[in-house]
Design brief:
The chain is mainly α. α4 packs antiparallel against α5. It is elongated. The termini are far apart. The relative contact order is 0.08.
Amino acid sequence: MGEDDRARGAEGTPAAAAEEVARATAQAFGLSPARPDGSPSAAAQRLHTDPDTVERDLIKLVLTIVELLRQLMERTAIHRVDQGDLSEPQEERIGMTLMILNERMTELCDRYDLTMDDLNLDLGPLGSLLPHNGA
């Protein structure tokens, strides 16, 4: 069986095979077919995409992830200091690094007119992603 025969699929034509793959994909991802009149579906209307704010939204997402990681690193560092796992120079270096990272986060938030509260995603019933006020 050649590659062309496999591409034709069970129904014998490449178009039928492509349609079968499209149906399976749509079913797997819960996608609706495009509307012929070009109007957005209900799912597309729930997505608030605005070409004018896409850069700011992307920066907000990236900064949210960086802030989450910064807070996790800070907690880990505090735990290691409490356990006595670090030498004094290591503690100093980690402290300085976390301070600089916090300053850079503040600068980037200012540049894109964001606050640290803007980075705190609401996860619905799970609460917020980041602890309030770094607590």
